[in-house]
# Entry
Amino acid sequence: MSLRVFKLSSPQFYAQAFLDFLRLEQKVWNRTPGATGPEELVEAAGRICYMSFGEKQSPRSNEEYIQNLIAQGHESVLEHVSWTFLLIGVSRAFTHQLVRHRIGFSFSQLSQQYHEETEAEFVEPAHLRTSPRALEAWREAVETSKQAYTIILETLDGSQNGSGLDLQKKELKRAVRSAARSVLPNATETKIIITANARALRHFFKVRGSIPGDVEMREAAAAMFKVVRDDAPALFSDFSLKDLGDKTPMLVSKLTGGCAEG
Ligand SMILES: Cc1cc2nc3c(=O)[nH]c(=O)nc-3n(C[C@H](O)[C@H](O)[C@H](O)COP(=O)(O)OP(=O)(O)OC[C@H]3O[C@@H](n4cnc5c(N)ncnc54)[C@H](O)[C@@H]3O)c2cc1C
# Structure
């Protein structure tokens, strides 16, 4: 199973509503032709702070305006636009790192307590391909853990509730699956829905998009980057995708450079 990223939602800007407001204020907004909805929403949020419309509006384009906001650290305006992604074919190791991002992210992930993992697949780390011996050891280990999972599940499912606790059927299932899942490896495939705003995504790309030794993280970051870059290039125009030299992506920002050191 390999990584796939689905875009489930993207930001919309109801420009007419904003223009209605400006008409009430008797202000004129010089809009940049071709700017996308999310880009215009961020510009509108920035301009409302200073009511910089009409004669107070600088000749900057939408992209120049947004990059200037970012350069000045006025980044809360980027929080008004967010995307929702579904990621599949990712490992629990990857999602454990991902969910450490607390600000501007929301997560909904496949539960191993409510969902049985007897058919679980495993995400093969790219680096294993460099060694047939290591790959074989990995395959044996994940298969063994899957067998142990099934044995634990079947054995405990068939046994009486010996915990001494008076557990209802649903809670007993949870206890059994909790015991069984404890043998599943970090490589276990999972599915996760992520909603994140542009500011949070920029931070994520910055700290996670260019760590050379973390291919899975770089590939996920690059896949999400491609989506948001296409929807709102001006919000991410300081980032670019490079090839690390092995056809894996590396996300670099010219404002902040690349890799965070752990
Ligand atoms: C290369 C690397 C190695 C890592 N190694 C480890 C490791 O060995 N062990 C480990 O536990 N984690 C590790 N992490 C995870 C890291 O410490 C962060 O938890 C994770 O990257 C989320 O980043 P964040 O806190 O900046 O993001 P978010 O939680 O999204 O926060 C965004 C920003 O909000 C601000 N913020 C958020 N919460 C607070 C707060 N409570 N107080 C003040 N400001 C706040 C900060 O400016 C923060 O950068 C590593 C991360 C990287 C990139």
